[in-house]
What we know:
Oligomer: heterodimer
Structural class of chain A: mainly beta
Radius of gyration of chain A: 13 Å
Shape of chain B: globular
Amino acid sequence: ETGVTQTPRHLVMGMTNKKSLKCEQHLGHNAMYWYKQSAKKPLELMFVYSLEERVENNSVPSRFSPECPNSSHLFLHLHTLQPEDSALYLCASSPSRSWNTEAFFGQGTRLTVV
Amino acid sequence: AQSVAQPEDQVNVAEGNPLTVKCTYSVSGNPYLFWYVQYPNRGLQFLLKYITGDNLVKGSYGFEAEFNKSQTSFHLKKPSALVSDSALYFCAVLSNDYKLSFGAGTTVTVRA
């Protein structure tokens, strides 16, 4: 266990649905991240929050909407997704956005868009 | 831009044999390099990192990595592989704006 918990572990949704992914950490970390993992591709950094403020948005389509209500929780709201959005979505946290700290990852949410 | 490359999609070794997973990097300035492992149906777990100091870095589960500045490499090694080491391994570099960029991953299969 890394201390980062993601729910749900698996999600199947239709293209017209609205759903949310949740990430929780009680490690006292100040930075949280969403990554997308697709087969045979490098992990794609989607969003970065530092001290609850979004500091990075890597040209992610607006059908993905992040929310960070406090330093322990991070959400990814999904709506009108496409089949190509099917992937493993990983949440991570780190003590700070710093050069000498590693990230701690959750187990991921396996998303399937049908 | 900072990036890493993992030239091998797959590495297959017999249990007890040495294991090497290759990684090369491209950065401006000092590189901050990481290795992560992902077991089936799990998230990524941190193995080790190179920030500064000794070129040989020791990490979890008996793994180590050698930083080679002249060859811009950071290969992951284990002297004697176990079947339980079978997993997906990612090399990563931290950019100047604190973004962690990952390679595409290398699938390691250790056969009994």
